[in-house]
Amino acid sequence: MKVAHVNQLLSIVLLPFLNLLTAFIVTTLLFLMVGIDPWEAAKILVKGAFGYEEGIGYTLYYTTNFIFTGLAVAVAFHAGLFNIGGEGQAYIGGLGVGLVALGLGALLPAWLLLPLAMVAAAVFGAAWAAIPAYLQAYRGSHIVITTIMFNFLAASLMVYLLVNVFAEPGQMVPASRAFADSASLWSWQEFMAYWGIEFAASPLNLSIILALICCVMVWLFLWKTRWGYELRTVGANPDAAIYAGINPKRIIMLAMLLSGALAGLVAVNELLGVQHRLLLGFNTGYGFAGIAVALMGRNHPLGVLLAALLFGALYQGGAELAFEIPSVTRDMVVVIQGLIILFSGALEFMYRAPLQRWLLRFAREA
Amino acid sequence: MQDAWLWLILSLDATLRVATPLIFAALAGLFSERSGVVDIGLEGKMLVGAFTAATVAAVSDSVWLGLLMALLASVGFALLHGFACITHRGNQVVSGVAINILASGLTVVLGLAWFHQGGSTPPLTQHQRFTAIDLPFAQQLADVPVLGLFYSELLSGHNILVYLALALVPLSWWLLYRTRFGLRLRAVGENPKAVDTAGISVAGLRYRAVIIAGVLCGFAGAYLSTAQNAQFIRDMTAGQGFMALAALIFAKWRPWPILLACLLFGFLDAVAVRLQGVSLPGIGLVPVQLIEALPYILTVILLAGFIGKANPPKAIGLPYVKDR
């Protein structure tokens, strides 16, 4: 084994696995600490996530959101940017969907309205990312801080709009009126029924196909196009990129617009697919979870897909767990999410040096 | 006139109450970031502090023990941040995000397991929390025109942590600008290599800065759950850690402007609460959300370089790698 092979083996297989393992060991300890049998909990979790059709539906429905936000973070990461604003971009994406669906819902047929609403989700999400991107590229303000601020601004704006503009009188929670029927994406149940296959009712809808298409498109874009190459170059070495004639400012804009658009698509799954109206907080947590998904998936679309599936399973399994064991809530999943970000992200290299030494010695002896 | 004065005094009084945790947390960020370690985990550390303070105070019946444990717990999370960012040179923003998410989940999971109250801790009795302190002669002087109100309402009648927060501003200034430790701390955030060349440990200094940040966030958290409120409620920081971060940037990483920024942000919050549903003559109904969002808008405008220039510490966010 050569040094290069050792490093490759380390960074693609061993380290991610060890990091994830560490996160789960700590989770196990936490379960023991609050007096729950971890093995029992794991069984409930897996069964809840994959054990029956409705559970699978829920798992994949969550997965869809995580794919969108995970890809959003990953695309920005490749350009060396940390987009913490997925939360706000998804929220504003919802505004785009809401405007199209409420404004044109009565006028347009579904085949025109749905694509239009999807484009609106992406455009609004991108627009919300455009301002931090512009400030980073042309005014030098740090993208992490501005995207955090824009999350809060999005939340304030949406509360204002929902309460003062969209809200239907007499409702407990501020929400818009229901979208027209033409603005409703087929649920997976309806889709399968069309092919004559029965599938249990769940929030899973056609958005998952959009999410998978996005995975492929992001892969094609990043590794098979000139822009993608330039984007990755800027992320790897901004100075070299300038010498190669790449304009990093434009790449920053490009990366963030794409990132925001992907985050905005969460609204397609949530609003067009499930809720069929604009409501408060439909985006909660998905933007931040996207960071964990991207870190775990090593910023590769395939990795993001797998990590999103894991998180989808954790969300759905966690809900099942909360149902079965009263002293557990979905917050357990939030803890696991935090641990994964900690060990797969911040402490990514913890095992690197010792493992490298060990593997190289092993390689020499062999 | 009398009414307007009373309104102003009461608003400022509320301002001080809201600004206190911001001051603690922003000063925490000041120490960490001046040493070159980005700290977006202020929110998480505050939350951990708040939870620990309320839990220990409720169980041990001692608010001081609660405060002490809150400081320790918050420092524990700060050390985790240091371990990831300083020892293992991990991404400081990622580590901060991890701490925030971890804190938000962990406090509820543990709270639920220990108290079975939906993630809250039991309500604290009056002697289990920090209560208002009357400054000398506050009652007697209350009737003195104009200044009496100022003294008895605004200056007097806060709990000890409010006064501590105010005292920490000059103390931080002194520590950062008038001591050897402060000089080195600022140097390590600007040019760690020079500090290293001088034979001073970069990691050691940054760890100390991160620990100070932990202590200050612990105070902020304890204030939330055992002074301002009387129990821990899930996610009770509600973005105040990020508000403090905004104040820190708005103040361009300097102690005295931090005080002003926190008071300004606190004032906006106090005013927003008071203007809820109030229709002002000539303006109409004030959108409360706009006032609440103002701190973030102001910070973004500042960051964009439209009001002065915010120059962060030069080496901020960069792990220090010693050359061979």
From TrEMBL, chain A:
Q: Which InterPro entries match?
A: ABC_transp_permease
Q: What is this protein called?
A: Nucleoside ABC transporter membrane protein
Instruction: Return the PANTHER family for the record.
Output: ABC TRANSPORTER, PERMEASE PROTEIN, GUANOSINE ABC TRANSPORTER PERMEASE PROTEIN NUPP
Query: Which branch of life, at top level?
Result: Bacteria
Give a single Pfam family match: BPD_transp_2
State the species of origin: Thiothrix eikelboomii
A Gene Ontology term for the protein's cellular component? plasma membrane
Q: Where does the UniProt entry say this protein principally localizes?
A: membrane
Q: What residue ranges are annotated as transmembrane?
A: 12-36, 56-78, 90-108, 114-135, 142-163, 204-223, 251-272, 278-297, 304-326, 332-351
- What are this entry's molecular-function GO terms? transmembrane transporter activity
According to Swiss-Prot or TrEMBL, what is its membrane topology? Multi-pass membrane protein
Q: Where in the cell is it found?
A: Cell inner membrane
Q: Which UniProt keywords apply?
A: Cell membrane, Membrane, Transmembrane, Transmembrane helix
Automatic annotation (TrEMBL), chain B:
**Which Pfam families does the entry mention?**
BPD_transp_2
Give an example GO cellular component term for this record.
Answer: plasma membrane
Q: Which residues cross the membrane?
A: 6-30, 65-86, 93-115, 160-177, 209-226, 232-251, 258-277, 283-307
Principal cellular location given in the protein's record = membrane
* Membrane topology, record value: Multi-pass membrane protein
Compartments, record wording: Cell inner membrane
* Keywords, in A-Z order: Cell membrane, Membrane, Transmembrane, Transmembrane helix
The yes or no answer to whether the keyword Transmembrane is present is yes
* MF GO annotations: transmembrane transporter activity
The protein's matches in InterPro entries, at most eight in alphabetical order, are given as: ABC_transp_permease
KW Cell membrane (keyword) present: yes
Name of the molecule in the record: Nucleoside ABC transporter membrane protein
Q: What is the lineage of its organism?
A: Bacteria, Pseudomonadati, Pseudomonadota, Gammaproteobacteria, Thiotrichales
